[in-house]
Design a protein that fits this description.
The complex is a heterodimer of chains A (105) and B (139).
Chain A (H helix, E strand, L loop, with lengths): L4 E3 L3 E2 L3 E8 L10 E2 L2 E2 L5 E8 L2 E8 L8 E8 L3 E9 L4 E10 L1
Parallel strand pairs in A: 2-10
Antiparallel strand pairs in A: 1-3, 3-8, 4-5, 6-7, 6-9, 9-10
Chain B lengths: L1 H30 L5 E2 L2 E4 L3 E4 L3 E7 L9 E8 L6 E7 L6 E7 L5 E9 L4 E12 L5
Parallel strand pairs in B: 1-9, 3-9
Antiparallel strand pairs in B: 2-4, 4-7, 5-6, 5-8, 8-9
Classes of the chains: A mainly beta (105), B alpha+beta (139).
C-alpha cells in the first residue's frame, strides 16, 4: 500500500485553524463487484487514524459505502509546531502511514 | 412464466424489507436505541450525482468543539445500497470544528442518513436526498 498523501500548510499562526486534506490510494473492493463474470475479491481499507503530536485527533472506520481512493478533509486548530500523522490499515492487516510537519509561530 | 412474474412481484417487497432491517440494524449497532433530534447538522451533498462511485459529502455539526462540549462521532448510512454502512468518524476536541468531508458510493438514487453523537450523550440526525445518474457500487 502506498503511504497516504497529506496536503497541509507548512506554516500556521498559533491558534490558527488549518485545513488538512488526505488521500489514500486504495481500490476499496467490496467483494460485490463482478468483472468478466466473476466476483472481484473483497479488499477494503478498514480504518484511518489521524494523530497530532502523537494524540489521536480523528479516527475513521470505513465501510462498503466509502468511495475508492478515500479522500477526507478536516480542520485542526494548532497552538504549537505539530506533526500530523495519518495511518491506515486494510482488512488483510496491511498498513501504511505518513507524516506532515507544520511549523507554528 | 406467470409463476416467475409472481415470484418477482413477491420478491420485491421482501428485498425492500430486508434493506430496511439492515439499515435499522446498522444504526442500532452504531448508536444503540437513542432517539435522534433533527437539526444542528449542516449536510452538503449534490442534489444529483453524475457518478455514484464518487459522491462528495460535507458534514458540519454545530458544536463549540471544547473538551466539555464536542461531537464524539458522526455516522453515515446509505439507505438503498447493498449494505448500509458508509463510514463512522470518531472526533475529538483536537478538531477545530466538527466538520468532515468525504466521498461516498451510492448504488442508486436514495436518502443518505447522518447521525451525530455529542459528548452530552445526545444524538442528532440529518438526511440528504441524492439522485444518482450512474450507480457506483456494482460497476
Amino acid at each position: 500500500m502506498n503511504p497516504p498523501r497529506i496536503r497541509a500548510p507548512r506554516q500556521a499562526r498559533a491558534g490558527e485553524v488549518v485545513e488538512i486534506r488526505t488521500l489514500i490510494e486504495h481500490p476499496m473492493e467490496t467483494g460485490l463487484r463482478m468483472e468478466g463474470g466473476r466476483l472481484v475479491p473483497r479488499n477494503m481499507l478498514a480504518s484511518m487514524v489521524v494523530r497530532v503530536n502523537g494524540e489521536v485527533a480523528l479516527q475513521v472506520e470505513l465501510s462498503n459505502g466509502s468511495a475508492a481512493n478515500p479522500y477526507h478533509v478536516f480542520f485542526l486548530r494548532l497552538e504549537r509546531a505539530s506533526e500530523v500523522e495519518v495511518s491506515c490499515v486494510d482488512e488483510a492487516g496491511r498498513s501504511a502511514r505518513s507524516m506532515a510537519r507544520i511549523a507554528v509561530g | 412464466m406467470h409463476r416467475r412474474a409472481a415470484l418477482a412481484l413477491l420478491a420485491l417487497p421482501w428485498a425492500a424489507l430486508a434493506q430496511e432491517d439492515a439499515l435499522a440494524g446498522a444504526i442500532r449497532e452504531a448508536v444503540g436505541d437513542a432517539q435522534a433530534a433533527e437539526g444542528g447538522i449542516n449536510l452538503r451533498a449534490p442534489a444529483t450525482a453524475e457518478n455514484g462511485g464518487q459522491v462528495p459529502l460535507t458534514i458540519l455539526v454545530e458544536s463549540p468543539q471544547t473538551a466539555a462540549e464536542h461531537v464524539t462521532a458522526i455516522h453515515v448510512f446509505a439507505t438503498r445500497n447493498p449494505t448500509p454502512g458508509v463510514a463512522s468518524f470518531r472526533l475529538t476536541p483536537a478538531l477545530a470544528r466538527a466538520e468532515v468531508q468525504t466521498r461516498i458510493r451510492l448504488a442508486e438514487s436514495q436518502i443518505v442518513v447522518v447521525l451525530a453523537q455529542l459528548s452530552d450523550g445526545s444524538l442528532r440526525r440529518a438526511n440528504a436526498e441524492i439522485r444518482v445518474t450512474t450507480g457506483g457500487c456494482l460497476t
